[in-house]
Structure formats: C-alpha cells, structure tokens
Specification:
Layout lengths: L2 H15 L23 H6 L16 H11 L2 H5 L5 E2 L10 E2 L41 H6 L3 H20 L31 H16 L22 E4 L6 E2 L2 E2 L4 E2 L3 H8 L1 H8 L5 E4 L3 E2 L2 E2 L5 H10 L5 E4 L3 H7 L8 H11 L7 E6 L2 E3 L2 H11 L5 H17 L20 H13 L2 E5 L13 E5 L7 H4 L13 H6 L3 E2 L5 E7 L18 H13 L4 E6 L7 H4 L4 E6 L7 H9 L13 E2 L1 H4 L21 H4 L5 E3 L10 E5 L6 E6 L5 E2 L16 E3 L8 E10 L5 E10 L11 E10 L4 E9 H5 L1 E2 L5 E4 L1 E8 L8 E11 L1
Helix pairs in contact: 3-14, 6-7, 6-15, 7-9, 11-12, 12-13, 15-20
This protein binds 2-acetamido-2-deoxy-beta-D-glucopyranose (7 copies).
C-alpha cells in the first residue's frame, strides 16, 4: 500500500480503535473510572472474535509465551505494520492499534501525536469522556538537577506517571514515554541544556535512575528477586538520545548530518555513562538512538552501540526506538553509504532497533512523512535484505514491554485514576517545592536578599521576563499548566509594586528563540540591548538592584557580577507553572535557596577557544584546546563554577569521624593490572601494578565517612553536599575531580546534621584510562567536599591511599 493511502486508513482506525474498548468510554459520567485493556472479552465479542481462542490473552501463561503466541498469529505484513510508532496492531486477531510516542520530560507534554489535552475552544470529540485541559508542569530538568535532591527527582517521576495513567484511562495518552533526556551538556552553547540534568555524567545518571524509577516502578514489584522480564511497569520511560548527541545546529553543523568524532575513552567515561546507569541501575524499559553519527556510523544503525552495548553488555529489558525520524534522516540527509530507504530500514533492524519513530502527522509535498520500517519493510523482505526473524525479535521486545504495562490485562492498581488525579494539590505543591529547591543564588552582596516585605514596602519590577509568558517559564516539551504564575504575579502577592521604590528587581535572561531544540547559541551573552538596559536600571537606582536570570544553559553575566550596583543575582532557570511563586518565595525569604549549579557558567571568551563540534573532553595544551566541563577545564574563563550556589545562611563542614585518611589494600593476585601514563617528573618508577581493571575485580571495598554539616548562620536552610574524588596527582589525563556522591540535607539555624557516605572503591575512585578500561589507580587519591559558597567557603579533604598486594 502506498504510504499516503495507508496513512488515511491509519487515521480512520485510530479514531475508532486506538482506545481498545471504545464502548466502555461512553458511560457518560465524568469522574467515573474508564479503563481500557486489550484482553477484554466484550471487545473481542464486538469484533466477532472469541477471546479464549487466543492464548496471548490468557493471563495464566508467562508473558514470553503469550508474546510468542501473539506474534505467531500475525502475517508478515501485519508484523511489518507494527514496527512504527503509529502501530496498526492486527485487528483481525483482536490487537488494536497503539501509538507509542508520548513525552513527559517535566510533566505530560503535548509533543508527539499521542498525548492530547482537550482544547477549550474546540468541541469535544468524545462527549462521554471528561475533558482534561491542563497537567502539572514541573520546573525544567536543569532546575530540578540544581536541587541535587534524588527524592525530588523520583517524586516528580511518580507524579507524572500518575497523571499519565489517568490520561491513558481517559483515552488521551499512551503508556510509553520518551523521557528523560540524559545527554551530558558538553558545550555551553548547546540549545537543549534546559532539558537535561547538566554536565556531570554521574549526576546526570543519578537523575536518570531516579526519574525512571519514579515513572516505572510499581510499589512492591521493584526490589531484588523480581523477574525483570515480567516486572510490572507503571509507565515506560526512555533514556535518550544515545549516543554522543549534543549538537543541534551550530553554524550549519546540524544534528541530522553531524558526525561526532569521539574517542573510546570519552565514550565510556562521559557520553555513555548516564545511559549505562539508566539501563543497569534504573532498569529503564527503553533507549532512544539519536540522529547523529558516532565515528562515521549513524547511531541507529550501529550494531555495536545497540545490540552490543545496550542489549548485551548492559542487559536492557525493553525496546530500542529511533529518534523521530532518524531512519529517514539516515537515508535522505546523512546519505550514509548511499543507502536507499529499503537498505536503511534493513540496516537499523539488523543493528538492533525495535521501533521506528516517524513523523506521521507531518505532510511534506502533499504526502505524510511515514516511518521507514513500516513503509519499506515489506520491500526489504522481498529483496532478501530483512529477515522475518529479526522482525519477530523486535516485536517481542515491544510486546513484552506492553505486557508489563498491563496494556493487555489492565493493572488494577491504576485503573481508577482519572481527571481528578491530574493537577492535584499535592502535584502542584510538588511543582512549587521543586522549583524552589532548584533556585540558585549566584551573588548576594551585603545580604541584599532576602527582601523584607516590611522594610521594602514597595519594589519596582523591570525587565523582559517580569511578565514572562508560559512559553518562557515552562520551557519545552510541555503541556498547558494547571496554574500559571508569572514573576510579577508572584512578587505582587507580597508587595506593593511602585515605580519609585527603593528596590528594583530586574527579570532578564534568554528564551527559546535563543536556546532550544534545533538551535544552538552562537554566543553565551545576554542580548546586547538587555545588558545595556540592566546597566541603565542599576545606574539609575538609588540602591543596588536584584537581578533574576531565566535561562537553561549558562550566560556570561560578568558585567553584572562585577557591578556593585547589582547587589544580588538569582538563577531561576525555567521554573515551570509555579515558577513566579517560587521566585517570590526565595526573594522574600520564605524559602532559603539551596540549589547549586549543575553546569559551569563560562565566560564568553571560552567559546572562542573551542569549536562546538570538537567532542574531546580533555585539554590539549599543545593545540590550545582548553578541555571541557569542570572535570577537565581549569582555565580562567569560568564565571561561576559547577556546584556554585549561595544561601541566606552559612554552612560549614566538619569530618565527624576524624578520618585523616583511609587505606585500602586490594589483592592484585589474579587481577588484570593496567598501565597508566604519568605526568613527567612525578614518579621515579611506575608501580609494578599501576592500576587494576575494575571489570576483573569483585569491587567490594568501601570507604565510609561522616561529615557534619553545621549551619552557623541565622536562617534554616537546605544544603546539597557534593562529594568529589581527586585521582592521584601523578596520573596523566585524569579528571581534575569528579562527583561520586551527593546528598541534600535540611539544617536548622544553629544546629548540625550528620551525613554519612559509603563509597564503593571501584565506583568512586575508578578512572577511565587511555584505552577505555575503567581502572582503580594505586597511589593517593583524595576525597574532597566544598560547600560551593564563595561568600563563606568551607571544604574538607582527606587522602585515600590505595595499594595492591600480590
Ligand atoms: C490458560 O492457560 C492455562 C495454563 O496453560 C490453562 O490451564 C487454561 O485452560 C487456559 N485458559 C483458557 C481460557 O484457555
Ligand atoms: C533532508 O533531506 C531532504 C531531502 O533532500 C530535504 O528536503 C530536507 O530539507 C533535509 N533536511 C535537513 C534538516 O537537512
Ligand atoms: C489550561 O489549559 C488551557 C488550554 O490550553 C489554557 O487556555 C488555560 O490557560 C490553562 N490554564 C492555566 C491556568 O494555565
Ligand atoms: C526603603 O524604603 C523604606 C521606606 O521608605 C525604608 O524604610 C527602607 O529602609 C528603605 N530600604 C532601603 C534598602 O533603602
Ligand atoms: C531588545 O531588542 C529586541 C529586538 O528589537 C526587542 O524585542 C527587545 O524588547 C529589546 N529588549 C530590551 C530589554 O530592550
Ligand atoms: C557514621 O555515623 C554513624 C552514626 O553515628 C555510625 O554508626 C558510623 O559508624 C559512622 N561512620 C563512620 C565511618 O565512622
Ligand atoms: C527533597 O525533596 C523532597 C521531595 O520534594 C522534599 O520533601 C525534601 O524536603 C527535599 N529535601 C531537602 C533537604 O530539601
């Protein structure tokens, strides 16, 4: 069938069959639970089928056997028609169409064809179902990351999946969500920094694990001993975009054609690390491959990256989906190996892709842009380029995931969720609390903040973001928020706004015209006229002003940092629907900011030293190449370092168990010793066993310590403790330092909280050597903590001696 006529048919099917038991929806009662599942006797009867004839609907048979049965009924045409995100199902045997593509980056998103909020301006298509106009929009991920609070990240995932299940029950959404975005922010110009948890691979990985577990885990079915192939899923999350994807469009280098030239060491240490954590520790049920090429090969056609690494090495339980529409891009834009559409389709399936996300609703040249696998799969089979067995394998991965989601049998725990479970007070307050937790105080001369509502009876509000519209505050991948508070509205609740007040708050920053998907920045400055306006306002004000900056990636605001008339600077990210309230709570001291920057804020000069297209993390002084992220760059072009963040109180660290150092002895017998490079002149002779290969070691050794976080200021507050390790200083090419653990704690003024850490030696002291082995080096490493508060710095360091014995 030609793509266009097939598409028409799909549209018809979709409106009638996409919701498995359409009739049960016509209960007329808003508020009443409506639930849908494939294996519903009445559905089969209505279609003239007898359900008991289909073992795939027999809930007492193991999932794998049911899936085998289901695929066994399907003709090859039916199989092929289910390899795209807008899947036909097989109505002949009772399997309805399913739309795979939903998004939930920081709340249910309208992006993609599946999740549909009702439009108040349009009459409702399904009059019997309750309308849902809005969902909870949490702060953007870069904000949440700044909280360094794993509980928050998981809670957000839990709240979103509850709203997702409710929308699914109402026939307005799917069960499979292509979130989170866990690409590391390698370069400050990247347009999608706002969508991500920042520049540190470990922090990004922990974000992924927590968000995914919040989205997926069904209480009581997540622990050890649960069969990962049948473990139920609340919703299915997806870690994207794999791999080495972080150029969108920079001076004509666009993501569709970009070939990321990546050393294997950087691949393991930086680009793949969050994905490995997402799969191994988060047990995510999907990974999405990216548009770009990695060392010449399109990511979605790379068997080593897909079948080899994700599925075999990391043991994915789930499916691999292409970015939408990476397969077409491979043939049309990357023009890889001159592949035809048929050859590209065959190549991705062979490499281990299970599902092709297309752009089915985009019409180009009068035709819908279909996904390639369903459009060209049959031809590929006829030409002998695609094996039916590979299709069966892909479908198995897909239907196993749907089985675990209760798509076939229902999931009683979530069947009663409905519109009343969306935008609940609990979710709205989580969004508000999350937005507050992510605010980062960058500068606060003479404790200008917090403002005192009595003392500062009137404030003057200036700047382009004072009345920032939803699309600025909410960022991207979002739906209509439950509630929307602008900064001005938030501030107005406390104060009188006046033109001639003695305190001015300027709301500036950038927006999605400047940083967004498909658009990287050319500089990291504020717009010139905004800089000029801020300086004018500051100059004209009798007292120092407060500057609130909205942005995802960092901006070079050196001009403001160094200006005594700009007394305080607050980074608010893009804080979501409750953002205006969260900003006001921080400004007036109802919430003491405890966020820390999850990425380095560079000075603009830095970007002139490094092309965005160079992937290497490590510096090359001989080439004038400065290196990237706090782990490798230690030059002067940093405005605010990774981890920077002030507070209204003061925190000091004390090592409570008085460790002056730790010694770890590891038997090297039977271990694989690896060589390391050393800095010139640091060692007389290399040790006989310089480092052990982590893969050959049981990795049971730990280093534990307690640190007391003392609040010696006069406000209660939360503080995020970041723990770094520093590799032995003689080792060449090692990171300057690396985050290995973190914990956010609340401490009352005048008291202290003890935080305990137990670090696994391989995980915390492991480094990736030149040939990409993860090794533990012998010698003296260090554990290092610093509070990130340049106005009241405190740090703790102690050596950890690691030695091997034969
Ligand atoms: C479902 O499978 C079980 C186990 O194989 C079998 O005993 C039962 O008869 C099946 N039910 C139906 C309706 O076929
Ligand atoms: C991809 O290739 C098609 C066909 O040549 C072209 O129409 C389209 O603009 C290209 N897209 C990009 C992003 O370059
Ligand atoms: C809820 O969504 C509707 C439809 O998009 C929008 O018009 C309305 O403003 C939203 N409500 C709030 C409080 O933002
Ligand atoms: C602002 O004005 C109020 C009332 O005029 C005054 O009490 C307060 O001290 C002023 N604050 C500053 C920071 O000048
Ligand atoms: C800066 O210029 C742009 C484009 O002319 C304009 O839209 C914007 O409002 C100006 N911003 C300020 C702060 O003056
Ligand atoms: C940390 O403190 C806890 C509670 O007091 C204690 O049980 C533990 O042994 C301490 N850890 C270390 C490494 O001293
Ligand atoms: C971490 O987040 C959770 C969930 O929002 C919150 O209850 C808790 O107070 C936060 N912890 C700290 C120390 O801020």
């Amino acid at each position: 069938m030609a793509p266009s006529s097939r598409h028409l048919l799909l549209l018809l099917l979709a409106t009638t069959l996409i919701v498995p038991s359409a009739s049960s929806h016509d209960d007329g009662g808003a508020g009443k639970a409506v639930y849908t599942k494939v294996c519903d006797e009445s559905r089969f009867e209505a279609a003239g089928l007898v359900m008991s004839r289909y073992p795939y609907c027999n809930a007492s048979i193991p999932y794998a056997d049911r899936v085998h049965d289901l695929i066994g009924w399907m003709t090859v045409e039916e199989k092929v028609s289910n390899l795209g995100d807008w899947a036909d199902g097989a109505p002949r045997i009772g399997l309805p169409p399913y739309m795979w593509w939903s998004e939930a980056l920081h709340g249910l998103s309208s992006t993609g064809p599946t999740t549909k909020f009702d439009d108040p301006k349009k009459p409702r298509l399904h009059s019997g179902r309750a309308a849902v106009f809005n969902g909870t929009v949490f702060a953007n991920v870069i904000n949440s990351a700044a909280s360094f609070n794993e509980t928050l990240w998981m809670s957000i995932g839990q709240a979103i999946s509850t709203e997702a299940r409710a929308m699914y029950n109402l026939g307005k959404s799917g069960l499979t969500y292509w979130s989170p975005n866990i690409n590391v922010v390698r370069d400050p110009r990247w347009g999608r920094a706002l969508e991500t948890p920042g520049e540190d691979p470990y922090v990004v990985g922990r974000y992924a694990v927590n968000f995914v577990r919040g989205m997926q885990d069904v209480p009581g079915h997540a622990g050890a001993g649960v069969d990962p192939m049948s473990r139920p899923l609340k919703t299915a999350a997806c870690c994207k975009h794999y791999a080495a994807y972080d150029v969108d469009d920079w001076y004509g280098h666009n993501r569709f054609k970009f070939d990321a030239r990546v050393e294997e060491r950087d691949m393991v240490e930086t680009f793949q690390r969050p994905f490995e954590m997402c799969v191994r520790d988060g047990d995510v049920s999907s990974v999405m491959c990216s548009y770009n090429r990695v060392n010449g090969i399109p990511a979605c056609a790379d068997a080593r990256l897909l079948s080899g690494t994700i599925r075999r090495d990391w043991g994915l339980h789930g499916y691999i989906v292409s970015d939408c529409d990476a397969v077409r891009v491979m043939a049309l834009n990357a023009t890889w190996l001159g592949y035809t559409a048929v050859e590209a389709s065959a190549a991705v399936l062979k490499a281990g892709l299970d599902l092709d996300c297309g752009m089915s609703w985009i019409v180009q040249d009068g035709k819908p842009v279909m996904d390639y696998l369903t459009s060209y799969g049959m031809e590929a089979i006829r030409m002998g380029k695609m094996r039916e067995a590979d299709i069966d394998n892909a479908l198995t991965n897909l239907y196993m995931t749907l089985m675990r989601l209760g798509y076939f049998d229902g999931m009683s725990k979530y069947e009663t969720l409905n519109e009343e479970d969306i935008c609940t007070d609990q979710h709205k307050s989580l969004a508000l609390d999350g937005a507050r937790q992510g605010m980062v105080l960058l500068k606060n001369d003479d404790n200008l903040l917090p403002l005192n509502a009595e003392k500062h009876a009137a404030v003057s509000i200036r700047g382009p973001h004072a009345e920032a519209p939803e699309k600025v505050m909410d960022g991207d991948y979002t739906g209509p928020p439950c509630r929307y508070v602008t900064p001005l509205e938030g501030i107005s609740k406390d104060v009188k706004i006046a033109h001639a007040a003695n305190v001015t708050i300027y709301f500036g920053g950038i927006n999605m015209h400047i940083e967004r998907e498909g658009n990287d920045r050319e500089d990291i400055l504020l717009p010139k006229n905004q800089t000029e306006e801020i300086l004018r306002v500051a100059e004209a004000s009798p007292n120092p002003i407060v500057l609130v900056i909205l942005c995802g990636g960092g901006v070079d605001i050196s001009f403001a940092h160094g200006n005594p008339k700009i007394g305080a600077i607050l980074w608010a990210g893009y804080p979501g629907g409750e953002g205006g309230q969260a900003i006001a709570d921080v400004i007036f001291g109802r919430y003491n900011p405890g966020g820390r920057l999850p990425l380095t804020w560079f000075k603009n000069k830095y970007i002139h030293q490094i092309p965005m297209t160079s992937m290497a993390l490590r510096p090359r002084p001989d080439h004038g190449y400065p290196g990237r992220t706090y782990k490798f760059y230690d030059g002067p072009e940093v405005l605010y370092p990774f981890g920077h963040g002030l507070s209204y109180t003061k925190f000091r660290y004390e090592l409570t168990d008085a460790t002056k150092g730790a010694t770890v002895k590891i038997s090297a017998a039977g271990r694989h010793c690896k060589r390391l490079s050393y800095k010139a002149g640091t060692l007389h002779a290399a040790p006989s066993c310089p480092a052990i290969d982590v893969a050959s070691h049981a990795c049971e050794e730990t280093v534990a310590f307690n640190v007391s976080v003392i609040n010696h200021g006069d406000a209660d507050g939360a503080h995020a403790v970041l723990v770094y390790t520093i590799p032995p200083r003689e080792v060449a090419g090692a990171p300057i330092k690396q985050v290995v653990a973190f914990q956010r704690v609340f401490v009352k003024a005048g008291s202290a909280a003890t935080v305990g850490f137990k670090l696994n030696v391989c995980k915390a002291f492991g480094i990736v050597e030149k040939t990409a082995y993860t090794v533990v080096p012998s010698g003296i490493s260090a554990i290092h903590l610093e509070n990130g508060d340049s106005s009241s710095p405190s740090s703790v360091s102690f050596p950890v001696k690691i030695s091997f014995y034969a």
